[in-house]
Amino acid sequence: MSDQAGRHAAQGDNAVPPHASAPGSPAGSTSDSADEAFARPGGVDGGFAPHDSPPSYTPPPPTASPAERAVFGRPADAGSFAPAPGERLRPQPHVEAPVPRVFSETFGAPADARDGFAPAPGSRLAPSGRAPQSPWWKPDARRDPWRDPAAPFWLGRGAIFTRGAPAQLDPDEDTLADDDLDAGAGDTDDAEDLEQDRTVRRVRFGVPTIVATLVIALVAGVIGGGVGWFITDHSNDALHRPDASIAQVQTPVKRPSGSVAGVAKRVGPAVVSIAVKTPSEFAIGSGVVIDSHGDVLTNNHVVASAAGVKNASIVVTFSNEATAKAQIVGRDPTSDLAVIKVPDQQLTVASLGDSSKIAVGDQVLAIGSPLGLQGTVTEGIVSALNRPVKAESDNGTSAYLSAIQTDAPINPGNSGGALVNSSGAVIGINSAGRFSTSDPSGDQIPISGIGYAIPINHARDIATQLIRTGKVDHAAIGAQGVTALAGLQVGAYVKQVSPGGPAAKAGLQPGDVVVVADRMTVQTFDQLVVIVQQHKPGDRIQVTYYRGSDKRTTTVTLGKG
Description:
- It is built from eleven helices and 25 strands.
- The chain is of the alpha+beta class.
- Among the domains are: 260-469, Thrombin, subunit H; 475-560, PDZ domain (Pdz3 Domain).
- The chain has a seven-stranded antiparallel beta sheet. Strands 10-11-12-17-14-13 form a six-stranded antiparallel beta barrel.
């Protein structure tokens, strides 16, 4: 290293960082005390101070019980299972068992054999005997009579035995030669027969013979046909009797005025069939004539597809097969009701009853046009009242109904028809039927005997508003929710409250569970909506609800939906 480089190195070793204090500065003592705290201890050359040696490992005492050691332990007089050093035995060669004598004599090598079954070198025997011969020619062929064409032998009958040895017949006695002569004679006879056949006279059929044959066939056909007709006619006469008659009993039928037939006869003309046709859809429903001005009450989902659609038509068919075009007066999707108007000529008006007077078990009739079958009448009873039902239509709208449940069959096409009591009064408008339900796996299970109708008292109020103004004002609570099924708090779970709406003003909040409304128990959110719709905007109803475990009561002033 040069002097200059050494000076630079010395200078570099003693250089002070820009942020450190130079030696002799006031802060030098503080820096030295800090370095002493982190300096390497004395007597330590490596990067780390020596560690204390770990404590020696002492195995834990055996966990086997004395009883286990007595059964499974090493015997008292036995040493280690492993042999002591130097006591290992040398490996012994494996000695195969000798082969039984009977097998060695039968399958073993001969006594004079070497290297197994092979004979000793040079001990193979040279082949001896006659050389291979041709199978087609032998040395004694000249003496073989079957190969000598000049041999005085021929093919004839079988050889005979003479004195115990076969012998050949003499040619003169061999019958085969005679047979050959007989065969030649037969050929001559055949030639003579052929020549004789050529002299036979040929017969020809002329026109008279053909005509006679046709006449005979015709006469036979006529006779056969006549016989067949005679037999068939007489056999049919044996099955038929021209003077036969079936007796009829003239028994008068007495039908009470309240019978199914009597009610259907009176109410049937007031129920019409409605056909709705649009450029993309065709639907059939039913309706009830409710006044003499041609107003027909039906379901909204029956005529909704024709509302505001160009080239749509609504055709009403009456019980006497007369038809008329109808126009929509007004629709209410919330209640699934609508009113259409037809010409007011010769109309049969239905008698509207009081749905508040009916009871479970009353006999009822459902009249309508299921599947387009006009004037169909089905019978049943009132199964339940005030049944909350959410009816969804094909166009996605939903209607909440406080329905009459009946087991009278209500099928597609019955919608808008009449539910009639035993006196012939209309007590409901058929609206929906339940045809299937889902099992836990999601499969559809068919069901029957469940139909729903809108009570006529509610339907009459909706129809009156539609006829007067073409629209309906419904009450609203201003809240959205679902059905709550959580322990004892079964009711309408409030998910959302409209700001400034009736529910918000009454103090309801999201998370509350409504259990009573207007003094009626609430078990589903649909039931709460149905209770609200039974009122008018401005009505006040009392609501009981749970907020957590705290039970509260408030009064809600219903708004306009």
